[in-house]
């Protein structure tokens, strides 16, 4: 554990709390991609199978349980109580393609060839592109409310901090190498490039999030 990893984890937690608070307070899921939430739930299910294989630490266990439970809860909120406010026509990104691509990469380039490790690799590849349906929906509408913008920023910021965590670990730990996480993390952070620019130039200045015409 280091300051970059801890800060990344806290920002990841913040993104989930922001989204849940937004859904509960507005009683609406307008502007939120259900497909992205499905993908994140799939990411956590396939990554945290090691919960049943051994104990690492209380912190590790609590974080994994929280991410699984909160992702399931968000999907439940959007699929059931708030379903009437969900606009399927705007959430039209073809997620089957990125799921298939993540599966192919996991089979071709796993961390190790075992069921758990292939699924772990799949979750890493899939997480790198899981935000794409949300970004695609924001591109289609051309705007987003500020709370949704804060949620997406927190997700992107968490991954950016993890890149700093990997740099720190590379220079402070012996034989630390994790090419799968490194490459996927860089790809994931790069996807936020345009969003970060608009967030810093508009939202942080008190303006609404709108894509340039």
Automatic annotation (TrEMBL):
Q: Annotated Gene Ontology MF terms?
A: ER retention sequence binding
- Report the InterPro entries cross-referenced here: ER_ret_rcpt
Q: Write out the annotated subcellular location.
A: Endoplasmic reticulum membrane
Q: Does the keyword Endoplasmic reticulum apply?
A: yes
The name under which this protein is listed is: ER lumen protein-retaining receptor
What would be the name of the gene that encodes this protein?
ERD2
Keywords annotated in UniProt: Endoplasmic reticulum, ER-Golgi transport, Membrane, Protein transport, Receptor, Transmembrane, Transmembrane helix, Transport
| Highest rank taxon of the organism | Eukaryota
Membrane topology (UniProt): Multi-pass membrane protein
Task: List where the protein spans the membrane.
Answer: 38-59, 65-82, 94-113, 148-167, 179-200
Please list the GO biological process terms of this entry: protein retention in ER lumen; protein transport; vesicle-mediated transport
- Family under the similarity heading: Belongs to the ERD2 family.
Q: Which GO terms describe its cellular component?
A: endoplasmic reticulum membrane
One Pfam entry for this protein is ER_lumen_recept
């Amino acid at each position: 554990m280091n300051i970059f990893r801890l800060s990344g984890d806290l920002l990841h937690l913040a993104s989930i709390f922001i989204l849940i608070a937004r859904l509960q307070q507005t009683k609406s899921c307008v502007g939120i991609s259900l497909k992205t939430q499905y993908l994140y739930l799939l990411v956590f299910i396939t990554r945290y199978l090691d919960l049943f294989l051994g104990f690492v630490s209380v912190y590790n266990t609590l974080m994994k349980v929280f991410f699984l439970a909160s992702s399931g809860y968000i999907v439940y909120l959007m699929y059931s109580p708030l379903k009437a406010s969900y606009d399927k026509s705007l959430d039209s990104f073809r997620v089957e393609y990125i799921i298939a691509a993540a599966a192919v990469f996991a089979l071709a380039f796993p961390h190790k060839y075992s069921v758990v490790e292939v699924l772990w690799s799949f979750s890493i590849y899939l997480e790198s592109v899981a935000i794409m349906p949300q970004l695609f929906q924001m591109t289609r509408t051309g705007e987003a409310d500020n709370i949704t913008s804060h949620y997406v920023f927190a997700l992107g910021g968490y991954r950016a901090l993890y890149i700093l965590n990997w740099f720190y670990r590379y220079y402070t730990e012996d034989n630390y190498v994790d090419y799968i996480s490194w490459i996927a993390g860089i790809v994931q952070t790069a996807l936020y490039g345009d969003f970060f620019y608009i967030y810093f130039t508009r939202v942080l200045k008190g303006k609404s999030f709108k894509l340039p015409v």
